[in-house]
Predict the structure.
Amino acid sequence: MTTILDIGLEEILPDARAIIRQQGVPEYAARSPQLVEVAEAALRELKEKLTPAGVLAEVTVPDFADIYPGQGFNDRATPLEGIFPRAERLALFAVTCGQPVCDRIRDLFFNADYPLGAALDAGASLAADQAAQIAQDRFAATLADKTGVLRYSPGYCGWHVSGQKDLFAFLGEDRAGITLSESCLMHPLKSVSGVIVAGRPDIHQFTNDYTFCTACAGKECRERIQAVLNLSEE
C-alpha cells in the first residue's frame, strides 16, 4: 500500500548559510554580504516555488530482492546487497520539490542570472534531501526505538540509476507527480527516490573499500552510519 506523504514547506527549507555551504563556499567567505544577499534571495524564491510531495510504500525483503537487480547494471559487489537481506522492514520512497522550482532554476540560467540560479539550485537540492530525510523519519516513527534506519538511493554506492524503473513500477501510478525519462532521470529534477532499510544498527556497517568508494568525494555515508551505530551505544 502506497502512503502519500504530507510534507510541509517549513520542514524542508534550508537557511541562507546552508545554501552558501552547499555551493562549496569556505566558511571564512560565507560572511560576504553579496553571498548572503543572493542566498537570502534564493530562500525567498524557495518559499514561493517549492511544492513538496512524496510517497512511501513498505516492501518485503523477497520483493526488494527482485527490485534491486534492476536492469542488471549494478556493480558486481555493493554494500546494499549485503544489507537489505538482514533488514527487519523495508520501504520504498519517492519525494520531490515540484516542477515550479525546477522551471525557475532553468529560467535563471537561461537568462544568465548565474549567481541566483546557482544558489536556488543548491537550495532546492538541500530541500530535496531534507524531504527524503522526512520520508525516512516518518517510516522510523513506526518502528521500535533504537532500530537502525538508513535510506539508500539508485545512482549511489553501486546501485545503478536504472534501478529506479523497478522501484517506480512497485510504487505504482501515484508517485507524487514524479516520472522517469528513458535514461531514468527523474522529473521534476529535484527529486529523490530509494529504499529505507530498518534493522539492527550494525547491519548498516560496511568497509568503504568498494571500487566506487574511491571516486566518492564526500564520504557522507560514514557520518550517517556512525549516527545509526551510536543508537546501540545509548
Q: What stands out?
A: The CA atoms of residues 87 and 199 lie 5 Å apart. The domain at 2-6+50-99+124-233 is CATH 3.40.109 (NADH Oxidase).
